[in-house]
């Protein structure tokens, strides 16, 4: 792939690592590429970070034709930079594209776009413990017409943001509200795809949770409102007795790459892991009778986040005395150890730049 480069001649001052938070600062460049049926994907370019101009009838503004991905570039102690399982993100992006009738990108081109872009912005990868360069590839339809149909003109972009922790709590336990009114996704819908609409529709419940002092909501299935699905920006796992339980991928849950990695780590280490249906009733019984030992969420932005409290129908359940559990901590240390190159990667997950 030929990638044109236009250098930003007015680079920004980089923020200090201790003020990063999540997604507030952006690097000096962005990757762009266009698609139309005549030319396929074309005009790959890395250009100064800038606003994107759109026709007011552009499809994405009316009908939400948009998908995105999230992955991170990590700074190793030796100064080098590495990605974590980037090919998994590329495959998921193409699955999301298929669901939204957007054009797929050949895996090797998507990887080249990503790695060339990260090399260009390498200096923006922060050095402090727990920080990284968050990469946000995204794709949207921009036909200039109001008819509802498969889009023909599409833009693919990658932007990057130096980040610290996603939650203000950092690695401290978060408080989560189990949502029993709104639903995030239904089978046959777009739950397994990473599309913007899923997130737009989840904001109302998120707002209600925030008003009650909770960080995010835990969604139940959209049919019976009975089975645990996932949290707004992460998958969930529970240590019940000696079994790690995580909701199985029924089509309405995002197949998280962190989820998949946690399962692989836990299984390799001999833990019993079940991907199965977990009803909210089973979970609340486990909370009442003390067999729920630990709960955590996992995601690229959230990493491994202990859950210290769950609210369900105005009943508060404190998990593990509101403290981070032993297994949660172990999983966090193992996963982040591999991601930042502090421990060996026996899985072949690391992609060094
Ligand atoms: N579930 C949702 C709804 C998400 O937005 C995310 C974040 O990407 C995840 C789960 C975790 O996925 P991953 O581990 O691939 O980041
Ligand atoms: C990620 O973890 O990469 C996500 O996409 C979560 C997000 C919606 C902030």
Give a nutshell description of this structure.
This protein is α+β, with helices and mostly antiparallel strands and 353 residues long.
Ends apart, CA distance between termini: 18 Å
> Do you know the CATH topology of the largest domain?
D-amino Acid Aminotransferase, Chain A, domain 2
- Order of helix and strand elements from N to C terminus: EEEHEEEHHEEEHHEEEEHEHEEEHE
- The mean pLDDT is 95
Helix content: 10-25%
* CATH level-4 homologous superfamily of the largest domain: D-amino Acid Aminotransferase, subunit A, domain 2
Shape: globular
Estimated share of beta-strand residues: 25-35%
Radius of gyration equals 20 Å
Low-confidence stretches: none
Textual characterization of the structure:
The protein folds into 2 domains: 4-163, D-amino Acid Aminotransferase, Chain A, domain 1 (2-Layer Sandwich); 174-339, Alpha-Beta Barrel (D-amino Acid Aminotransferase, Chain A, domain 2), CATH 3.20.10. It has 8 helices and 18 strands. The chain is an alpha+beta fold. The strands form 2 sheets. Strands 1, 2, 3, 4, 5, 6, 7, 8 and 18 form a 9-stranded mixed β-sheet that branches. The two termini are 18 Å apart. A hairpin with a 3-residue loop joins strand 15 and strand 16 (303-312).
Topology overview:
Layout: E1 4-5, E2 29-36, E3 40-48, H1 59-63, E4 66-68, E5 71-75, E6 81-84, H2 86-99, H3 107-120, E7 132-141, E8 154-163, E9 174-178, H4 196-200, H5 203-211, E10 216-220, E11 228-231, E12 235-240, E13 243-247, H6 257-268, E14 272-276, H7 280-288, E15 292-299, E16 303-312, E17 315-318, H8 326-339, E18 350-352
Parallel strand pairs: 1-3, 9-10, 9-16, 13-14
Antiparallel strand pairs: 2-3, 2-8, 4-7, 5-6, 5-7, 6-18, 7-8, 10-11, 12-13, 12-15, 15-16, 16-17
The protein binds pyridoxal-5'-phosphate and 2-OXO-4-methylpentanoic acid.
């Amino acid at each position: 792939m030929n990638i044109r480069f236009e250098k930003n001649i007015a680079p920004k001052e980089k923020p200090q690592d201790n003020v990063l938070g999540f997604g507030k600062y952006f690097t000096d460049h962005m990757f762009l590429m266009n698609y139309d049926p005549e030319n396929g994907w074309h005009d790959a370019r890395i250009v100064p970070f800038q606003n994107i101009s759109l026709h007011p009838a552009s499809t994405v503004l009316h009908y939400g034709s948009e998908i995105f991905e999230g992955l991170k570039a990590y700074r190793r102690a030796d100064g080098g930079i590495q990605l974590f399982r980037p090919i998994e993100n590329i495959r998921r992006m193409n699955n999301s594209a298929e669901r939204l009738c957007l054009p797929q990108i050949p895996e090797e081109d998507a990887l080249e776009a990503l790695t060339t872009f990260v090399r260009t912005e390498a200096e923006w990868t922060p050095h402090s413990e727990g920080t990284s360069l968050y990469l946000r590839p995204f794709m949207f339809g921009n036909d200039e017409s109001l008819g509802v149909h498969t889009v023909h003109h599409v833009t693919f972009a990658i932007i990057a943001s130096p980040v610290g922790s996603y939650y203000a709590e950092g690695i401290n336990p978060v408080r989560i509200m189990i949502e029993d009114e709104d639903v995030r996704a239904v089978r046959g819908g777009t739950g397994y795809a990473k599309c913007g609409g899923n997130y737009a529709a989840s904001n109302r419940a998120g707002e209600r949770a925030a008003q009650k002092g909770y960080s995010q909501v835990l969604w139940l299935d959209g049919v019976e409102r009975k089975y645990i699905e996932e949290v707004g920006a992460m998958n969930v796992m529970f240590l019940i007795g000696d079994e790690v339980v995580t909701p199985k991928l029924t089509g309405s849950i995002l197949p998280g790459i962190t989820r998949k990695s946690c399962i692989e780590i836990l299984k390799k280490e001999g833990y019993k892991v079940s991907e199965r249906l977990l009803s909210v009733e089973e979970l609340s019984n486990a909370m009442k009778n003390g067999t729920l030992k630990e709960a955590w969420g996992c995601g690229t932005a959230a990493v491994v986040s202990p859950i210290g409290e769950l609210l369900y129908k105005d009943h508060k359940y404190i998990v593990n005395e509101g403290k981070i559990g032993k297994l949660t901590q172990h999983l966090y240390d193992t996963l982040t150890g591999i991601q930042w190159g502090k421990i060996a990667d026996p899985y072949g997950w690391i992609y060094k730049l």
